[in-house]
Predict the structure.
Amino acid sequence: MTAEQLLTINCLNVAFRLPESVIHAVDDIDMAINRGEAHGLVGESGSGKTVTALSIMKLVPSPPARISGEITFNGENLLQKTEDEISAIRGAKIAMIYQDPMSSLNPVQRVGDQLAEAILTHQRIPKTEAFRTAVKLMDDMGIPSPEKRAKDYPHLLSGGMRQRIVIAMALACNPDLVIADEPTTMLDLITQSQILELMKERVKGRTSILYITHDLGLVAELCNRVTVMYAGKIMESGSVYQIFENPLHPYTKGLLESVPRVDDVGLLRTMPGTLPDPANPPVGCRFHPRCPYARDNCKKEKSTFEAEPGHWVACELRW
């Protein structure tokens, strides 16, 4: 049985025109997310992950950004939507969880009122009912004494509680897709585990999650499929098993080898070099200046091919 695709990205390009240069943040990428799937988007900081996510939400400012391609959600191209049309989709059909909850919460408004407001934006129900629903969502998120906490301001809550509030806001209208941009980066390990369990529960239904991170350990725990980005390009994509058990791109291998392991002895493994200048990226494979296996042919334009069913890679090496 073929999985039902919820979101497809075709030939997406996002470039920022500056006075003296053009920054190619996302360069001709293709990606698909199935309904009910947890999909990991991984890569170093500056790879284009967040810009891709903001493009889905149509939150990239234009100008200075120039966006082209197609982002199809439930059969409709989001990039062709008017601001009123996309506003009706944000929160109701597609929601986003940011890594810093304080950037998503109003510091002078009680958290229960903020949650109720998120519900009232897309549902015509009485305010009292919206507030009761907000308290119920807080209880579902594992927040103790939700009736009391609903009357608190964000600064009175711990970081873990604030993030739970942000997740509750994202899930308030039962969206089809949740975009989680490093949602556990600022939390301790125990709270991270609790938040991930909450998000896992959501994937058991029809909700899809695009999980953006550089933490491959969390991807292995949470996701069904993985897309690896580098310097605005997709290097590899496949199931979690394919990426972790049979990585084909040297960049993917480098990321996996950089993950700390309990049985490691000695120094942590790292990849030499840094991301290229986005205003002047290398021709051919973007990774070739850092790749230990690079050949002259790697400096030519590359195409992505399917190495095995569902496993795509932008590299000609055979391991």
Q: What stands out?
A: Residues 5-93+209-313 form a domain with the Rossmann fold fold (CATH 3.40.50.300). The two ends are 31 Å apart (CA to CA). The chain has a mean pLDDT of 87.
